[in-house]
Specification:
mainly beta, Thiol Ester Dehydrase, Chain A, single chain, two-stranded antiparallel ribbon, 4-stranded antiparallel β-sheet
């Protein structure tokens, strides 16, 4: 996450940034499954589980849970894999960072996307 993503005091990143990443993941899954970007319809659940700050590195992953005629229910998870390590926490410079031994799950969500039947062009197994 860049300094531009920091929205609150303490360089805290707005949780909506994780939803933006999930939207990108959903687009890839739909292209792989249907050959079309489709549209995000709704989130069923969203859990913000840990803070994200400027300088953190986030990996986002998604998978398809259910496939209907036009709907695709998806699960998402965002994990912090590297965190900024400021001098106050032992960093040697403002650019110091720490690779986390175990990634920290920062957000989970379940949502539904729709690809109209007329736009569905392929039926390959999605990878996310």
């Amino acid at each position: 996450m860049s300094a531009h993503d920091a929205h609150y005091a303490g360089d805290l990143v707005d949780g909506a940034r994780m939803l933006g990443l999930f939207g990108d993941v959903a687009t890839e899954l739909l292209i792989r499954l249907d050959g079309d970007e489709g549209l995000f319809r709704a989130y069923e659940s969203i859990e913000f589980l840990a803070p994200v700050r400027a300088g953190d590195y986030i990996e986002a992953e998604g998978w398809i849970l259910e496939v209907g005629k036009t709907s695709r229910k998806m699960g998402f998870e965002a994990r912090k894999v590297i965190r900024n390590l400021p001098p106050s926490e032992g960093g040697l410079a403002e650019s110091s960072a720490e690779v986390l031994e175990s990634p920290v799950i920062v957000c989970r969500a379940v949502g539904t996307c729709v690809t109209p039947q007329a736009l569905q062009r392929s039926k390959r197994s999605p990878q996310g």
